[in-house]
Amino acid sequence: MDDLIGTAEGLKGIRVVHINATPYGGGVSELLRSLVPLMNDLGILTDWKIITGDDQFFNVTKKIHNGLQGGQEVLNPKDRETFLLNTEKNARLFEEQYDFVFIHDPQPAGMLSFCQKRGARWIWRCHIDTATPNPTVWNFLKGYLNGYDAAIFTMREFLPPDFPIANVNIIPPAIDPLSPKNIALPKEMAKQILAWIGIEAKHPLMTQISRFDPWKDPLGVIKAYRLARKSIPKLQLVLAGSMALDDPEGWEIYQQIVMECREDPFIHVFTNLTGVSNIEVNAFQLLSDVIVQKSIREGFGLVVSEALWKGTPVVAGRAGGIPLQMADGAGGILVESVEECAEAVVQLLENPSETKDLSKRGQERVREHFLLPRLLLNHLSLMLNLEKPKKVIIPGKSDLKQDPVCGMAVESPAISLILDKQNYVFCSEECRNRFKMNPNRYRIQEK
Fold first, then answer.
1. pLDDT at residue 277 above 50?
2. Full-model pTM
3. Which end of the chain has fewer CB atoms surrounding its CB within 10 Å, N or C?
4. Could you give the angle at which helices 372-387 and 2-9 cross, rounded to 10 degrees?
């Protein structure tokens, strides 16, 4: 916190805007809902703006989103025209002047091509796994990224080929421990909340909370649940998801889920449109015996840190930023198939002592690395470097130490390694081991 306040001193009075595609229904909007007011509290004048677009535009941006994650999407000439016209419209509507413009994900990424920078630094923040994108989709979007001053990815491994932005920063997301979704709830109150929506907390509960998205593999979760139920007969499954404005595909996946489990009274499906919002999600994450996040592709998966923060064990796909949150075996079990998912759920439910130890270590890892002040410190340090390229040391404040593998700010004492007379610090043994295997990969982008 001292480093955060000290770094903010060098940025007071500047104007910042964050631009994304939806005010609710995903991790980006949740981050901004907490990040923006905190930046204002630190004296940084910060706005949050949402792009506009018709249904056809968001169908196209969903194609782009899936294609960037490796989906076999095809952008026809009409799709490209729709993206172009809506992007140009949003650029025309963006009239204010700022010192820093943060553009989140592919939906608004093309705005810079139709805007004058007017002295602002533009930063593209990619929250998804773009390591192996569909070449056609990537080549289309890549042309709109020229001119950005910096880019932010969750992991260095997510960097797509021939990336056109030279200044690349690795900054994992974080959760707000004081938001309604994460604030401490008394267990009796949480039980009452779940009882009100029809969930019996006395029976074992397995829950996945995520968008209704094929990359989250909700149908695979149902299959894993049915396998696990052979060993845990009274096991219940909850699938809770948000329907976001920029995700028309969500309704299609939701219908598939409802059809798949319509005759199983032990499976419960909820959305933010049927009375399940932040407080209910909080109660689910607190009272579930195991949280599942069986992602096939994943940018980060904030729900993993949310569950770990509440001391609930997690079974999650070994995808994207999830292993970073559960590094060194903290918090639960990583899996790669439906069968492994079912086995892990049973293992955690049948071994409460081992599960309790995993949960404690997961909660501590989130406390150290995945709470909002760390994310904010990363962002402010990036802005300060762009504003004043020559190294600036705030009097009385320590210089920011960052893990070269995952990019997170790391406090001393920390896991460290001396190489070529330089001391590197790490958030986990896993990051240190990855660095030792290929140090040149993680030293290329150092500032």
1. yes
2. 0.84
3. N
4. 30
